[in-house]
Amino acid sequence: MEATQSAAAVAADLVQSKMLARLNDFMEKKGAAVGVCAMMAVSYVAVLYLPAIFLRSPKSMREHMLRRFACAAVASALAPMLCFALLPDHPRWDSDPSTVLEIFGLRTHHLWQAIVLPSLLTGMLYLGPLVLAFLDLIEWCWAASHGGLIHQICSVVVVNGKNMASDVLVWRNCLVAPVSEELVFRACMVPLLLCGGFSTTATVFLCPMFFALAHLHHFGELISRQKQVISTAALIVGMQLAYTTVFGWYATFLYQRTGHLIAPIVAHIFCNIMGLPNVDEALASSHRRVLCVAYIVGLVGFFMLLGPLSDPGLFNGGGDSRGCDCWYGFCKWIAPQKL
After folding, report:
1. Which of 61, 69, 134, 200 is 20 to 30 A removed from 192 (C-alpha atoms)?
2. Any catalytic annotation for residue 2?
């Protein structure tokens, strides 16, 4: 009897020790994933400030932004290399090395779906501001054209297009920032967090925290360069953090569901162009009833179509995502973890 009880006690201790070992291993992987992502976020910002340490002050905004573009390119190259070194070896890598690029959402098949569908989805979110901009454009062009509406619209588009093509701030908002930030904060961090043991849902809410962390440096810039008082700077940065966090949820969700880096990039460009919706302007407009309907239809349509238009089946036709909420199946890899 005593021998039986002793054997049962030993078995219970063994089970408990195995469970604790698995729990510790699980927590270590999660901690490592979070630590690496935090390091990536800090490094991304630190690289942007390297020219200010080693080079003379820029003579113009254009020179300043070109330096930032070069630094963003360096940060965007270093992050994938670190991510690849830490990710587990996938069984398909040996037979098809091109799948390494797919890890970072760089693939050509189902490309048009990854561009058009997220654009439609993001456009629904901004339906109110888009309708307002369209109505204002028609009214202005009609008043200035004296009847030649189509010609005036084309002239406005051409002139604005030329001005935007030569503006470094437009290049930052529409190309450099979306591409570099989505590559680092989505394509690199999402696989690390999923392989570290976080669920797809947890990753959607966790990943934007690092994205928001990378925007804290604006607080110092507002005080030192723009001479804002601390309270004003804190309010501005607080609004930026709230906006970037909400957008980060959306972008991470898109990347996990589509497996295409271009999907969050398109959404990022769209949001940078549109900015925060100006509700006061809509309410003051003579078309406020139409705009209110557009806002409501847009919001309702966005949440209704969020799932269907981001269905992984639309972007890969099965593949590695079967039975998984993330396209590439990071969360189901069974290879030995490096994290």
Report:
1. 69
2. no
